[in-house]
Amino acid sequence: MNILKKYFKGDPNIWAIIVGLSVFSLLAVYSSTGTLAYRWAGGNTAIYIIRHSGYLALGLAFAFILHMFPYKYYARISQWLILLVVPLLLATLLFGVDVNLAKRSFLGFQTSDLAKFALIIYLAQRLASKQNGILDFKKTLLPMFIVICIVCILIFPSNFSTAGILFVVSMMLLFVGRASFKQLSGLCAVTVLIAGLLVAGLLGLHKAGVNNVLTQRAETWVNRVERFMGDDTKEDLLGEHFQARQARIAVGASGYFWGTGPGNSVQRNFLPHPYSDFIFAIIIEEYGLLVATAVIFLYLGLLYRARVLMHKCEKTFPAFLVMGLSLVIVFQAFINMAVSVGMLPVTGQPLPLISMGGTSIVFTGASFGIILSVSREVQRKEELQARKDAKNKQPEPETNNDTEDNERIIYHDY
């Protein structure tokens, strides 16, 4: 225990959440990649779990390394990260790997994951430095909103759900940062209106015979919503309605509280992506509602600990940093789980630190590392304050009463 306390600083509850999510990740991914292994790896189920374990170890290494650095360093690199992210997102749109009409990967990783990470750090730094003028719309709020829009617009064509999550979390962070609710409401209303008109225009072009990536993506977004609303007449080119239906079957076949048991999933053989987009459905099927509820409470626990940590922070930057990064993780988690149980249309969002993947795990681990860095600094200050309080409470050393009396007499006589 002393070794753990020496090297693993910060909130032990957050470390416990990381370990819990990692354990569920290994169990669920190993169980859900069986069909994938028989299809592409000659039945060798060890290949995928070893690769996933490697990414998970890398994510945990990022968490450990970043939690050792003082959080003030992340404020210094925030603007450089944004300057790096914007051209990377643009390059992804132009030269990225095309999968199902969406270009999300460039240079071997998903740039949108880096964008989420960078934008939250940038907003936390700007909000902290502009607190005195936070109500100044032109000089403070509008420049930050423009940066949010640039990043989200570059993500929007290939990953609508990620752009939506990032926009909503960014606006929530601005609200937490004491920006005017009236101004934020107006900006959100204008953004939603413009986005709706854009999608409607793309649909109109698609029906008029204009066939390109943007018009096809718009058709895909609308079809997802219509299929979710119960319109099965829509052509299901990507099999998304089939995926959602199989996920609901997995949830219904879960055996309720206890599940079918580890490795006994049936729907993993039918779900196209049981190890990523619908991994929560596999967890429910195999481990039941009790374990699924435990997974939910792990994410809720992160949000609660982030709130506690935020109130302990003496400065605004670490407080905004913790809340922003935690909201991204938790919001994405609940989107994924809602899709798995049929509460939302298919989005393609992985379950943070549980779903199989590389970039998502690495940047989720990095986010945990920065949260723990703030927690580590708060813990250090609490320990210093506790030592000071203990020192102040120490009793005064005993002295000879006769000597004290004599000294008082001499003093008064003088």
Structure notes:
This protein is an all-alpha fold and 414 residues long. Helices cover 71% and strands 2% of the residues. The chain contains 16 helices and 3 strands. Helix 4 packs parallel to helix 15, helix 7 packs antiparallel against helix 8 and helix 12 packs across helix 13. The longest helix has 34 residues. The protein starts with a helix and ends with a helix. The C terminus is likely disordered.
List keywords for this structure.
single chain, 16 helices, disordered C terminus, mainly alpha, 414 residues, 71% helix
Task: Record the SSE blueprint.
Blueprint: H1 2-7, H2 12-32, H3 34-40, H4 46-67, H5 72-76, H6 78-95, E1 97-99, E2 102-106, E3 109-110, H7 111-129, H8 137-155, H9 160-176, H10 181-207, H11 213-228, H12 240-252, H13 279-312, H14 316-340, H15 359-392, H16 401-413
Antiparallel strand pairs: 1-2, 2-3
Summarize, please.
The chain has 414 residues and is mainly α. 71% of the residues lie in helices and 2% in strands. The C terminus is likely disordered.
